[in-house]
Design brief:
By secondary structure, the chain is mainly β. It is built from one helix and ten strands.
Length: about 170
C-alpha cells in the first residue's frame, strides 16, 4: 500500500469548533462541508504568443477567489440549553437582523474557528481554519410522524477567510 494511504482520513472523525460558541468536547456535529475554492482567472482564453515548434503560450492570471466561503454543518436538534443545536441557534439569532426577530449584532458576532480531521487512531491529520465567520442560513428538517431519524438542523456558516493549516 502506498505510504500516503497508510493512514487515510476517516470522514467520520472530525470536530468543528467556533470560538466562544462551540468549543468543548461535548459539542457534536453530524456532518460538516469543506468549502470549494473557485479561483478567478483572467486571460485564460487568450494566447499571448507561440514558441519554436508551434507551442502556444496562454496567459493565466490568478485574481483571488470568488466571493465568500460557505460551510454547511448539521447537528441533531435538541431542547437542552447547552446542546450544540441551541448554541448554534443562539449565535444565528445574534447575527439575525432585528427586523427578522434577531438581535442585529452581526458585525460584533463574527467568529473564528476550525475544522479538524482525525485518522483512524484519533491523531490530528488535517485542519482548516476560518475567520470573520457568521451563520448566514438556518434550516430545520421537516417534522414527519413516519420519519425514523432525529430532527436535524443545518447551519450555513459564511466566512471571509478559509485555509488548510495542517
Amino acid at each position: 500500500m502506498p505510504a500516503d494511504l497508510a493512514k487515510p482520513i476517516a470522514p467520520s472523525s472530525f470536530y468543528l469548533e467556533v470560538a466562544d460558541v462551540v468549543k468543548d468536547e461535548q459539542s457534536i456535529f453530524k456532518s460538516v462541508s469543506i468549502p470549494q475554492y473557485s479561483p478567478k482567472v483572467q486571460g485564460g482564453q487568450q494566447a499571448i504568443g507561440t514558441t519554436k515548434g508551434g507551442k502556444t503560450i496562454w496567459q493565466v492570471n490568478a485574481a483571488g477567489f470568488e466571493g465568500l466561503f460557505k460551510i454547511d454543518c448539521v447537528c441533531i436538534a435538541s431542547g437542552e440549553g447547552s446542546s450544540t443545536s441551541k448554541l448554534m441557534y443562539g449565535w444565528f439569532k445574534k447575527c439575525l437582523p432585528t427586523s427578522n426577530g434577531g438581535e442585529g449584532k452581526w458585525a460584533s458576532s463574527k467568529k473564528s474557528g476550525s475544522i479538524t480531521a482525525y485518522d483512524t487512531d484519533g491523531k490530528e491529520v488535517a485542519k482548516w481554519e476560518f475567520a470573520e465567520a457568521w451563520p448566514s442560513k438556518y434550516k430545520c428538517a421537516d417534522l414527519d410522524v413516519t420519519a425514523d431519524s432525529y430532527i436535524e438542523e443545518t447551519f450555513t456558516i459564511t466566512c471571509e477567510k478559509f485555509n488548510r493549516t495542517v
